Every structure is written in structure tokens, then in C-alpha cells.
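Table S7 (text form). Paired inputs.
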Amino acid sequence: MADRPASALDRALSRFDPRTTWFGWGRTLIATAHLITLALTPTAALLHPLLNESPYPHCQKALAVSAYCVGGDAVSQEWRRWIMVVLLAVVAGGYRPRWTVWIHAWLLYSIGVSIALPDGGEAIARIAGLLLIPMGLADDRRWHWQRPSTPIGPTARGTAFAAVWALRVQLVILYVQSGVSKFGVPDWLNGSAEYYILRDPIFGAAQPFEGPARWLSGHGLTLGLLTWGGIVIELVIAAFLVGPERLRKAAFVLDVVLHASIIATIGLWSFSLIMIGCAAVAAAPDRTPLSAPRVPPLRKELRPWQQTRSSNAPKATSTGAPGSMVSR
């Protein structure tokens, strides 16, 4: 009996391969979230000083390795911003994940610790960036959209397997905490929280969804479904993410529905894309088929114009004398 969990783990590990398109899409979504933030937000807004604090970025001690600090005053913050945009575009494009996973983790750390008002998405992305490193080191593809063509080594498989499960556990903790904590808030318990959230003057629903959102939250039944439905979805996602592949895929679909509705109503594009990207990596299939090896052709095929010229060429016949050839 004690050997059963070990044998199940051995089977899961033996067939595991992180080099899936799910991994690629997850990296792309996380990188795109920060690319949009940097490209569309002025540097002055990201680094605006807070009350009673020195100007951002803060570059003391460990913060000095941030992309906002390396190079000191010799590099302007505007140049840094666009260099980071270019690097994030390379990551999002999927080129050489084994190399770019390091750059991505560094950029996620830099943004998370250096801008004035990071949100929960930045904190989650910093953790995800570290956990993506073992998965990226196992990925020898040129582009993370391709099928792998070589078997994965046992060390790379083991570290990537541990990293994937660490990410799943992180997301489970996050969604359970988010869902359960709402039970301590009266508005969530009585089903009216979404009424106030959607009408908030700063973070409330925006056009073109403001009208439908206000209408739905103005009726008791639909308001209760909106409020309690969000809690149920969060808890179901947490439960399904540690299940078999079909349940993980269902968790990913629910995650997309949840965060797409957040985007449609109260915005939070960056946060939502990060969460969907993390869910894509966590819900990925355990294995992916290798691409078929490329077999070179036995002989070079003639093009149509070459075939025509070959068939019209004069034929040579022998006259019987050794070494002599006469054309007809």
C-alpha cells in the first residue's frame, strides 16, 4: 500500500514534459500584460513619488539589480522603459525560452519592486517568473510554439515537474484565500458586493458594459448570482487545478471566464492577463508528443521545367565500338 503513491508519482513523472503550447501561451500572456503596462503608461506615472517617500525607483541593497537601477543616472528612465518593452516583446514572441526565461524573470522582479504602486498582479508575476525558470531550462525549442523534437532529460524533467506543481499550489492558495476571505465581509455574505463594486466611481464598470452591468446588478437574483458566483468559481478553480488533466482544463476555462468578466466590467487588464497566463501554465497537459524526425529525401525531385527538358534531350546510342557514342 505504501508503494502506491510512489508508483503513481513515478508514472506521472516519467510521462511529464513541460514543453507544451500551454506553457508558451502562459509566458506570452504574462509578458504581454507588462508590455501593455509599460508601453501605454508614462514613466512619470509609474514612478510617481508617494506621500512621505523618496522618488522612485528605490535602488538600495537588493533593489539595485532592478532594470530601473542598473547603469545609474547614465541611462534615462525613458530609455529603460522602451528597452524593457522590446525585451518583453521578444519573450512574448516565444523565442528561445531557455534563454529568455531569465530575462523575463528579471523584468518581472524589476517592475514589481521598482514602480510606485504595484498591484497584486505584479506580486503574483514575480513568483511565477521564478517558477518558470526551471520549466524554461528544460525547453530546448527555438520557439515555444513548436513541438519538441528531442527527449527531455531526467534532471530537467524532475525540476520542471516540481516547479509546475509549486505554481499550482501557489494558485490554489491564492484562489482559496480570495474566496474564503470574502465570507468575512458582510456585503459578500448578503450577496450585494457586486452592486457597490460595479458602481464605484473609480473602479466601477466602464463603457460599453456599464449599462448591462448596472442592470444585472440592480435585480436581486442576478446580483446574488454575480456576487456568490464569483466566490464559487474561485473555489472550484482551486479544487480543479490539482486534479487530472480534464479538470485542470475546466479550471482554465473558468479562470478565463472569471478574469474576462473582470476585464469587461472593472478593467484590470494587466492583473487578469497575468492570472490567465499563470492558469494556462498550471493547467497544461502533463506531456506533449515529439515532432516527427525530418527524413531527407532519397533523391532530389526534378521541377516540371527540368522534367520537360530531360524528356526532350537527344538520346545517345552505342555504335558497338568501345567508348564511342553516336546520337540519333
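Next pair, protein 2 of 2.
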Amino acid sequence: MKIEVSKRLLLLMGFMMMFSGTLLSMEQGSQGNSITYRPSSAYDPRFFVESNLEFTLLHELSHAVIELNDIPVLGGNERAADQIAIMLMIMTSHGFDETLFDKMLSISGEWMIEWREDIKRHPLAFWDVHPLAIQRFYDVTCLVYGAAPDKLEKIRKETWLPIERAWECDKEYTKNRQALLWLADNYSYVSFDRNWQLFQKEQHPPADEVVKIQFIPTSNVAYEPIIDWLMSSQRLKYLIDRTNQILKLPEPVTIYFETQCSGPDAWWNPAINGIVICYSLIEQFQNNAQKLQPLVKRLSNESELPFLFLFPEKYSGLLAQDRETIRREFIQLMDDILVGD
């Protein structure tokens, strides 16, 4: 039983390469047309930070929608908020263009970077209400693949997406799309037509700004450039304006950019109808933006041994040895973690 659990986790690690090539070729259905993707924008620090900030805001706003409207949730609020945020980013994009893939790479890359840091510095918190960062990576990958499996099958084959997960990704995407349609019909000013194109079904009240931003002053001079950047960000302004055009909320919500945090974090606080985003989280995004391109390059070289993504540092000395040795060591390590010595 212990070995089987470890093997399943081993299999789960197989799809890190979804966005890790510097050139990805995607089949366009049966016509054989191809789209080339070069992740240039994702490597841009500003784009990386803004993409992860967009996901963070949408994730926390999803919590606000669920909480303020008393929406019942199966499967956990954190997983639901992740899925709503990613589905919104996919469904409001202009198809499978480079911008969408760059956003997904930026967000997935952040999770993978956090995962690699977590496994080096902290005990893994299997009890946490949040999915592990590596699970969040695979969840978004599955949703993107499920949106157009006929067009993205070549990526699945080339980048190790386990068929056990890929088999249901189109159904997972369809179910999430239906859920998003239900949310839009009941709690927004927009909906989707028969072709799943977004349209404005009614206008929001002109003076009604249900979501506002407040920047909390800080005495930490290191955060001053972050505040200046946030206040001047046109993408942030557009996101808030668009949110006010889309969302119906029974009560106003304020987004507080805050300095008094125990670490890089963001959360929905129902006691104040507010979303708190720490300046330190933006700082983390800035730092991790510099790590994305080296990470992609490194993982490209490790692609034939996908389970190394779990504990790469522990196996640096084994890369020259045979794969069976690495496999046995990995399974033993996972057994120790999952069930103890």
C-alpha cells in the first residue's frame, strides 16, 4: 500500500513540462495547423508580477462572492476560489493566444517556485485548507488542457501529462464552465452566449463601485517603490474597473494593500468585508520573477525524471546513477513522509 501511494504521487509529478519548453508547438485540431509559443512576456518581471496579482485578486474576490452570497461549496473554498479565478482568466481571454499562455506560465511558475522553496525550508502542510502548490499547478494545467484537448494533445504527449488525469480534464473544464455560467447568471451583470462569449446582460449602476482599493501607508522604505508601482499600474486599474462592471455584491468590498503581515500572504477577511494583500507578497512575486526562466531551463533538463521535481536537491548527487536507484530512493522518501518510519 505504501509503495502504491508513492507511485501515485510519482505519477502526479509527470506534467511540469506543460509550459517549460522555450518553443511549444500545438496542433490545431484535425487540420494540422500549428501555433508557436515563446514565453517572452512571462519572463518580463512586470508581466509576471501583474499576472500573479491578477490571479490573487480574483481568488480573493471569489471568496467574497461565496461568503457574501452564502453560496454552498463542495470540495473546499480554497479549491473553488482557485478554479473560479483560473476559469475567469481563461473565459475572458481572447482565445488561446500568447497572452493567456504567458499568464498561465507566470502563475504556474510561481506555484512551482513556491513548492521548491517549501520542500527545502518547511515541513509539508498536508493538513492545510489550501492545496499544495504542486497540486495547484496541476489543477490549472488540467483546466487549460481540458478547454481544448484536440488542440493541445501534442503538448500532453510531449510534456508528460499523465493520461489518468488528462482523461477527465475536458469534463472538469466543462463542469467548471457550467458552474461559472451559473455564478454569472446569478451574481453578475454579465453572462455567456451559446458560443461562450462574454456579454453584458445589464449595466451596473454608474455610481456603484462595489470594489475599492486602499493603500495602507508604510514606514518600510523598501515597500515605497511597490506602492508607487501599484498606484500607477494600469492593469490593476483595469482589473478593478472591470470587476465593478461585472460583479454584483450585496455589500461593498475593500482591497487593502497592507504592510503589517507575518509573511507574504493575501486573504479574505469577512469581519471587515475586506481583502488584505501584503506588500511582502508583491515583493515575493518580484523576487520570483527572476527565477522563472532559470527554473524553466532546469526543469527542461530534468523532464525525463519528473519525480525529481519533488525533492531535487536530495538527488543532485544521483543524476549520474541509474534511474532505478533514483526511483527506489524517491519511493522510500515518500513512504517515510506519508506514513513515518
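The first strand starts at residue 24 and ends at 28.
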